[in-house]
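Wait, can you check?
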Amino acid sequence: MRAATVVPFVIAPTLLGLAACSGGGGQLRGAVYTDREAHYQIGPLAADWQRLDVEDQNDLAWRSARLSSIVQVNATCDPGSDVPLSALTNHLLLGFTERDVQEQEIVPMDGREALRTHVVARLDGVPRELLFYVMKKDDCVYDLALLAPVGPQFERALVEFEPFVAGFTTEVH
């Protein structure tokens, strides 16, 4: 995933490389994403969120200049892998320092359990506020993330991120 800042827009390779680097090669048609490994539907984002080219890093990512924020989603499928949700979430935080977990809880998502983690951390010395949803389903790991400046911009971006997450489903036909 990538980190946004009001000054130069910085994208964190660890965040856009999240759970395992599947990404790339898929297609988004409307709200449905399909690639060789997975398919899923996402919820809406406001019209000013611009899609980012995340070739070979994540499936999908968007940036809001208004909120200096990033939203991303990725699926990685491996039938032989059974890594705990907490370890998968920790992987998303590689490259971040001074991590302070604000909240972590199991929540329902797409008929499964997901680990929802709210963290304040630093990326290259710049404070960031992050929210992750990590879920395992049908041999795939799905991670959805929000990365924003700490405080009011995070809160405003969160209001737009939650419907994006609520609309997520792998039940796409």
About this structure: The longest strand covers residues 96-109. Residues 1-23 have pLDDT under 50 and may be disordered. The chain is about 15% helix and 40% strand.
